[in-house]
Design brief:
about 220 residues, alpha/beta, Rossmann fold, 7-stranded mixed β-sheet, 8 helices
Length: about 220
Amino acid sequence: MTTTDTATMRPALAAAAQQLGLQLSDTQFDQLLAYLGLIQKWNKVYNLTAVRDPQAMLTQHLVDSLSLLPALRRHAAGRPLRLMDVGSGGGLPGVVVAICEPGIDVTCVDAVAKKASFIKQVAAELGLKNLHGEHARVEELRAAPFDLITSRAFASLLDFTTLTRQHLKPDAIWLAMKGQHPAEELAALPAELDVFHVEPLQVPGLDAQRCLVWIKPRT
């Protein structure tokens, strides 16, 4: 990403964060833009995303992932949490969460080795000790259980919850980022899962429907 790109994107990123009600430090803005630069650099070889235009990446990837943060902060309420981001690809939303929420320990899981390697490189270059990349099929991953499991365009809600259920702590929840209200996917979920909230998300600069589906096992 060129210096010009960074200079033009920073005000747009700051404006989007303000619209979302997010207080971020200068260092966090620097890290978000550096992350975007790394996606562009690695994309030439690793095909992390089909989106190539820097401005489109800013809105469709960074700002879209930032839209999760207000809900995540409400839920965390300042508690240190462990979060797994499934089918993370280039680290969305996991890397964005790790940058903006130092108290949340984020593990990005992807079945593609080069994508997990990219996450590890991002963690090293940006000094994010709370960010980890794991190369694994999520159903085969060996890890301590998590407080939160999230995904963004990973799979159907049924597959997402089925493949990751063994990784949930007691009282943990799933947070699935979706486009428009996924009525058919919700109808396919088994009765032992409780969809206790479907929250509309407003993504600054994006003319598309987005929502966040909150799910937990019924006790």
